[in-house]
Design brief:
By secondary structure, this protein is α/β, with parallel strands linked by helices. The chain is 24% helix and 22% strand. Strands 1, 2, 3, 4, 5, 6, 7, 8, 9, 10 and 11 form an 11-stranded mixed beta sheet that branches. Homohexamer. Dimer of a homotrimer.
Length: 270
């Protein structure tokens, strides 16, 4: 799907709150999609010896709140550039006492608590049912954990992220419910972003940078605020950049250890 049938980037990264720049040397490309304009021009540069496309999911000025992010345009733009792997870091809250601010979680499951978001590329005429049972690429997850540990980061190898609608944070009652379910992470953007990447047969990995204890119930601290999220994220941005560099350098050129490239094989009756 890349312009001129030549991939302009191998790996795509979506930046979240507090993460708007990745490269010092890059070119910007505005990508047209059938789903409108993506949140911002895509920055394309080199990292870890590979061509990487970076897109701030909320826009360059954080103008798109979580429920208004143009998820389909963002993901389609990456696919159009030739990207086959998506790295999806995000600021996130913790729901469990053993997952602390400043630590990272590489999620392996999600729970969707959003509403009204357009969450598929397949509106017909062929019914397409993509399974999200193993949404996050196992190969990329393993590489991400190893990359974080190499950078000296406390990594959690798995976790479930519950995705809430936003832009409001959870009530204490909601947070208590999520914690009681055993879910580790709370965020506002993983759905439908990660699922849409799966629909286009891209590998996707989430790296949740924990910035807070959600509504304060678990850590016995003040309830979360957006300013505090951005502050803690900023304090840990160098950790994330180190992890990304280590991860990208270890991603193999060929996808052989996952079924992500074959997502649509069993999703249709034609």
């Amino acid at each position: 799907m890349a312009d001129g049938n030549k991939a302009l980037a191998d790996i795509g990264i979506f930046g979240g709150s507090g993460f708007y720049k990745l490269f010092d040397d890059y070119e910007e490309k505005m990508v047209e999609t059938p789903y409108g304009a993506p949140a911002a021009p895509v920055a394309i540069g080199k990292m870890g010896g590979k061509r990487v496309a970076f897109l701030p999911r909320h826009g360059e000025r954080h103008q798109f709140p979580p429920h208004k992010v143009p998820y389909r345009a963002n993901v389609y733009a990456m696919k159009k550039l030739g990207v086959s792997r998506i790295i999806s870091p995000c600021a996130a809250g913790s729901l469990q006492p053993d997952v602390k601010p400043g630590e990272f979680v590489v999620c392996d499951q999600f729970v969707d608590r959003t509403s009204g978001r357009t969450d598929t590329f397949y509106d017909g005429p062929i019914a397409t049912h993509v399974s999200p049972a193993e949404l996050y690429c196992p190969e990329l997850r393993g590489l991400a954990v190893a990359a974080g540990e190499k950078s000296g980061i406390k990594m959690h190898k798995q976790g479930t992220v519950v995705v809430i609608q936003g832009p409001r944070f959870s009530t204490k009652a909601e947070s208590r419910w999520f914690t009681s379910m055993g879910w580790e992470v709370i965020n506002m953007t993983q759905y439908p972003e990660a699922f849409l990447a799966r629909e286009l047969e891209m590998c996707v990995v989430n790296i949740s940078l924990i910035t807070d204890f959600d509504s304060g119930l678990v850590g016995n601290v003040e309830p979360v605020s957006h300013s505090e999220v951005v502050k803690v994220f900023g304090q840990n941005i160098s950790k994330l950049q180190s992890l990304l560099k280590n991860l990208i350098s270890e991603i193999p050129d060929v996808r052989e250890k996952c079924d992500c490239p074959d997502t649509l094989k069993h999703a249709r009756i034609e």
